[in-house]
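Field: COMPLEX_INPUT
Field: COMPONENT_COUNT = two
Field: RESIDUE_TOTAL = 583
Field: MODE = joint
Values follow.
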Amino acid sequence: MTATAANNLKVSQDDVEHIAQLSRLTVPASEREKFTEQFNQILNYADILEHIDTAGIQPTAHVLPVSNVFREDIVKPGSALEEVLANAPAVHNDGFKVPRVIE
Amino acid sequence: MTRYITVIGLEVHAELKTKTKAFCSCSTAFGSRPNTHVCPVCTGMPGALPVLNKQVVEFALRAALALNCRINKFNKFDRKNYFYPDLAKGYQISQFDQPICEHGYIDINVEGEEKRIGITRIHMEEDAGKLVHSGATISTSDFSAVDYNRAGVPLIEIVSEPDMRSAEEARAYMESLKAILEYTDVCDCKMQEGSLRCDANISIMPVGAKEFGTRAEIKNLNSFRALVRAIEYEVERQKEILEDGGHVVQETRTWDDVNGVTLSMRSKEEAHDYRYFPEPDLVPIQLDDAWIERVRSELPELPGARQARLVKSFGLPEYDAGQIVSSKAMADYFDAAAATAKDAKGVANWLLGDVSAFLNSENIGIEDFKVAPAHLAELVNLIKDGVLSSKLAKKVFGELLKEDASPKALVEKLGLQQVSDEGAIAALVDEAIAANPQSVADYKAGKDKAIGFLVGQIMKKSRGKANPGLVQKLLKERLQ
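Field: COMPLEX_OUTPUT
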């Protein structure tokens, strides 16, 4: 490995916790170290790509050489209400009943 | 005391008038039973794939060109990740680093001064669902019910440069923007229903400062009045903080229209780490010159050009023309009435005067005004032809408001024709002279005002129908 020590530690345990929080995942303290190590391994692996000369190459937004796939503006019926609400944990006035959420 | 400069930028969300949602074929109809315009794409079911509605691009392009933007021929969608129950997917499809257009502007006019307000960018995105809280406010609710009918309805977000320096400039910008979106027919612009929404970024800095102050973002501005009041309130709040030696905190605040204050929304620090990345389920958009130029050629006459036309073709004052074109429906009404009116300025005066007063008192728009443009034109013509005095015309107008009919027919039915028959008026004049010797003597003694009393008596006697000009003329002739 030619990577420097600074490159080896790209994310800290705090970063792992932050990302878990953003993803609404609970990561037990016992696993935090393992995840930090794995995150760093992945990011260091991605470093290999940094050595490729990409001057003059457009960033890739999509892997297929396809653009302009459209649909006409014509209404089609959606799902039946019962079907839509079948996945709701609870229902209130035809709505998905969710706990109070304060942003 | 330090003097401050206010700096305002606006972020405006406009719902596009498509029949279907941005990425699926569900209807965008407003006010339906909850969760009845919903499909697996709207609810973020595994495997459901979005497909872009072509009309969304068409409308966004139309707005972009009307707002003088530079089009990004290559543009794409990104995912904006956040957890909130208003979007079932856990992200909003939006445009991040390559929006459909950038670098536009609107020219506004505040108190006779023209100013150009920059538009940073316009991007396409989807609206979120609606949360109905169980209590009166979110904090007093135990739970919320989510309706995904609005989730996926297409929006354009129009971001301005921080170019506005007062609440009035912000208002003028917002009014011009609304008019342009109405003219181009991309949005129905009902602020109360939320199809046009506005957030304001507001900061203040001492005169002479080189850097802007810390800004607060104000949400929930549902009317022009709310926009103006919120800016005025926020500027005072920030001044007080600075005067007390404090620092303005960068945060999102919500406008409380009832109490006339802005309140902190206490967002968590982590709430705004959106982790944007390209939307893998949607392919990029490539606009070519043919498409762009076709849309440009189909743009309707825009408010600025229409105002200039009303000034040039009908001789309306700049200000009046501006008032008329600020609503497309009003401008259309004017054009329809002016087509058969002998006095276009008269039509404008009625529209900006009595008609507007009536609309305001009824709290309706001109699109709900029941008097046909041709009938207003006929009323104006009756005045122009001397059939009606302006006083009688107001009476006829009052009748028209009750029941739209031909003013000519109304005049006959109510017997309101102005009497311009010399013989008939002369009789009334002679009668008044005979009955009021004192006034006659006063007038002859040089008291010019006395003639006003005599005219008044004659008008009263004729129940307002005598031609006032003729009354004056005949009186003066007899009193010489």
